[in-house]
Model the fold of this input.
Amino acid sequence: MKKYLIYIIAVLAFQTTNGQTASDTLYNPSRAIIADLDSIVTPKGIQENFQLDIGGVEQWVYARGNDKDNPVILMVHGGPASPLAPLAWTFQRPIEEYFTVVNYDQRGSGKTYRDNDTISLGKTIHIEQYVDDAIAIAEKISNRYQKKKVFLLGHSWGTIVGLKAALRRPDLFHAYIGVGQVIKPVENERLSFAYGLREAKKRNNQKAVEELMSIAPYPGTEPLTRHRIVIARKWAQYYGGLAAYRHEFDFFFKAPLLSPEYDRDDVRAINQGNVFTLGKILDEFLSVDFTQVTTFPIPVFQFMGKHDYTTPTQPTADWLEQVKAPYKKAVWFHDSSHLLPMEEPGKFLLELVTQVRPLAE
Done:
């Protein structure tokens, strides 16, 4: 159960341990090799980590790309408080040949959580503050890299922030890309629970059925507590709703341990920041509803994993069908669930290069 406490809303946080493991002896050499291979060495390349004071919080920013003349894409990570930067080494390097990719650790997340006073930080954990942050970072990186506009990509929880930022400041962005888009969290909970129960019954998993029925009807009229969400998400994810065709997710949970961007204390801060943030944002998160958004001011792409039951895709597909936008496109990843940048990195790259990048020209 503990393992499924993380990433119960939109994207899994990273479960870490304070204990030593057999891999500890290889930890530093492995990271060094990855860092060497991952280095940007081209003459016009960008590779820099820095902090920006955004809304009174020093937030860590990571920018990488082979050519400073390429368009910039700003990635808004999921969670809440599940940073993408320590995962970037698993899929991002080819994208950096065509974009300057900017990640940042949101307030309460990863290295940003670790480097700020949590007492004052806790008072600022509100969705609109995250939207303010994303807009401010977009403005700053546009100026820093001399771009009139940037692309905006949100993943899972980050799609709430990203969609709101695009609606508020469309002048900053070429286009918006949703990956595991959240439209209405309560509806996602219903679909996720139904999928987990259906699969458990099909496989005669009595333990799973009993656990799921203990919270039925779901979501029902009872408060959506962390405990109930954990049980519902646990079995949907176990049956491939997080990563297609997989029951276990160590490739995702443990990837930050090999990240050149994070040391072990930074990795431990991921889980700490997730727990810190979740209780403060849960009620606001559950009240989100984009179903009434019928017009969108900039081109919009939705990248959807066919097997995703962490943020189920049907509400997203329905929303995209009815929304009016200058350009819109649904892109299906048929062998992916929720972690499609890692599950189908080749297709992820091709779609960004062939479908998205031309809009900057």
